[in-house]
Amino acid sequence: MSGKRVVVGMSGGVDSSVAAYLLKKQGYEVIGVTMQIWQDEKERQLEENGGCCGLDAVEDARRVAAKLEIPYYVMNFKETFRRNVIDYFADAYIAGRTPNPCIACNRYVKWESLLQRSLSIGADYIATGHYARIEKLPNGRYSLRTCASGKKDQTYALYNLTQTQLSKTLMPAGWYEKEEIRKIAEELELPVAHKPDSQDICFVPDGDYASFIEKERGVIFPEGNFVTRDGTVVGRHKGIVHYTVGQRKRLGIALGYPVFVLEICPQTNEVVIGKQEETLIRRVKADRLNFMSVEDLTEPKRVWAKIRYNHKGAWCVAEKTGEDEMLCTFEEPLRGAAPGQALVLYDGEFVLGGGTITGGE
Q1: What Å distances lie between residue 343 and 27, 41, 178, 193, 360, CA to CA?
Q2: In angstroms, rounded to a whole number, what is the distance separating the alpha carbons of residues 138 and 280?
Q3: Residue 192 has pLDDT above 80, yes or no
Q4: Which of 35, 33, 32 is nearest to 23 (CA)?
Q5: Alpha carbon of 271 to those of 209, 245, 337, 348, 357: distances in Å?
Q6: Residue 358 Rama label (left phi>0; alpha psi -120 to 50; beta)
Q7: What secondary structure letter does DSSP report for 152?
Q8: Catalytic (active-site) positions
Q9: Is residue 341 over pLDDT 60?
Q10: Which H or E element spans position 105?
Q11: pLDDT at position 283, please?
Q12: For 320, phi and psi rounded to 5 degrees?
């Protein structure tokens, strides 16, 4: 691909660093870019946890670019990130949903904004270090294929990409095992060869989502009642932003048996809890649909589906129930589908499509 220009989103981690090297080796004209998305330079820098948006990420990426002898720039996406990720994140929790900010960031920041900016400066493609593969299918559509390293597969968080975005994206790391990527980095003596992977949401490095949202919105969310399905009050909660459907730990309530969050009701400021068997569902509904390997789901189809990032997946029959609505009926009961999370469908190794969970029963 000599002469083709590609902008590589460099997070300062080992995956995107090796992706840049692999593309240069393949003959691309590679430009490294780090997206500046932190909101307060004094508070958002992540220094030791491998975060993808701190000031240290810029320095790491800059050193890698110098080692690889490629141009490197920092592009400002603060406003886009706040609007499409931080505001979305806070709004969802306040509404009793459980957001996935990485999916929003992928679609609207890392792709929609970075891609348009890159094309405007003459790039042919953008590239990332994600563990996924992009392939053009016989039907002419682009789809994500699960990566060579199943345990690192990141297709779930990328299901919402459009056909245009997929057609203009390269993901070279998806053809390698994680151990192979680190070995390549070691052989190149890259300064990030042994940098740990990012684990937490980048703009909430301490994992305290509730405190972050309260600080963002300048409010303290009031305490309310824990209730059972029949409305019986069994305790007090700390504020609905502290909880998510399916949660068992850190509830601060003892009823003599394990309890789980079944529902969050912002209208009444109640958190509904119950026993484990009450969390089991067979049907999951979703909207905000995006299809990938097919243009649309025209008839019921048996597929493999995941209801959260770490879900191993399960068989279900997926069918459209409206213009932008889908119902998945699972063959075996599964626990707690949290509204706001993604429901992602797989047809073999390829992403069929997905949507945002609205509820389950």
Answers
A1: 37, 35, 26, 34, 11
A2: 38
A3: yes
A4: 32
A5: 17, 9, 16, 38, 19
A6: alpha
A7: G
A8: 105, 202
A9: yes
A10: helix 101-105
A11: 97
A12: -75, 135
What's the rounded Cα separation, in Å, for the pair 315 and 356?
18
pTM for the model stands at 0.92
Dump the DSSP string for 164-225. Answer: HHHHTEE-GGGGS-HHHHHHHHHHHT-TTTTPPPP-S-TT-TT--HHHHHHHHHT--PPPEE
CB 31 within 8 A of CB 73: yes
What is residue 146's three-state secondary structure?
strand
Determine which helix (DSSP H) or strand (DSSP E) holds 79, and give its type and residue range.
Answer: helix 78-81
Q: Which two tokens stand for residue 144?
A: 């994500």
> Where does the pLDDT of residue 205 fall: very low under 50, low under 70, confident under 90, or very high at 90 and above?
confident
User: How confident is the model over 90-97, as a mean pLDDT?
Assistant: 95
The one-letter amino acid code at 283 reads R
Q: Are 40 and 212 in contact (CB under 8 A)?
A: no
Distance from C-alpha of 60 to C-alpha of 151, rounded to nearest angstrom: 26
Q: Are strands 280-291 and 325-335 parallel, antiparallel or unpaired?
A: antiparallel
Rounded to the nearest 10 degrees, what angle do helices 209-217 and 87-94 cross at? Answer: 110
pLDDT in tens, 59-80: 999 999 999 999 999 999 999 9
Exposure b/e, 108-134, CB count within 10 A at least 16 = b? bbbbbbbbebbeeeebbbbbbbbbbbb
- What whole-number distance in Å separates Cα of residue 248 and Cα of residue 260? 5
Q: Which residue has the tokens 């559509």?
A: 141
